[in-house]
Write a structure and sequence with these properties.
There is one protein chain. This protein is α+β, with helices and mostly antiparallel strands and 62 residues long. A two-stranded antiparallel sheet has the order 1-2. The chain has two helices and two strands, in the order H-E-E-H. It has one domain. It is globular.
Length: 62
């Protein structure tokens, strides 16, 4: 998963939360993996594709 992550997400990663969504606290899955947002958070792919979600359209291009 190449790309940029922010310092807070780096800290989450180091604390064992690399596969835990920063938005809802649930793990990423094969059906809904985590992706990086434009501002460096790991969230579910569905968060970036749902127009009613605040992360809509915020997926980093890799």
């Amino acid at each position: 998963m190449a790309g940029w992550i922010n310092r807070a997400q780096q800290q989450r990663d180091h604390n064992g939360q690399r596969n835990i969504c920063a938005a809802d606290g649930h793990p990423g899955t094969a059906d809904d993996p985590l992706v990086k947002t434009a501002d460096g958070w790991r969230v579910h792919l569905s968060d970036t594709t749902d127009p009613s979600n605040g992360f809509y359209g915020q997926r980093q291009e890799s």
